[in-house]
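SECTION: protein entry
WANTED: fold as C-alpha cells:
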Amino acid sequence: MIQFIGSVFKYTGLVIAILVLSHVIEIKGVSISKHVEHTMNWVTGINPTVDVGKVGREISASVQSHLDQIKKVDAEFSPEDQEQLNELIKKAERKKASH
C-alpha cells in the first residue's frame, strides 16, 4: 500500500514537472505548450482565429429564423382553434392526474 501511494506521488510530481517545464521552455520563442496547442488545433481542424462575433451572429440569425417560423405556424391557427387545443390539453392533464 505504501509503495502504491509512493508511486502515485512520484508520477504526480513527474506530471507537474512536465507541465511546468512545458510552459517555461521555449523553442524558437514559443513555449512548448503553445506548440502543442497549435498542433492540436491543426489535427482537430479547430481554427482559434475564427471570429467569435461572426459565430454569434450566425447563431442569432438561426434562432431568429426559427422564431419567425414558429410565429408563422402560430398565425395559421385561429383563436377558436387555439382555445379548443388548450381545452384538449387541460382535459388530458386532468385525466392523467386522476389516474
User: Anything to note?
Assistant: The radius of gyration is 29 Å. The mean pLDDT is 82. The helical segments are 2-24, 32-44, 52-75, 79-98. The first strand starts at residue 26 and ends at 27.
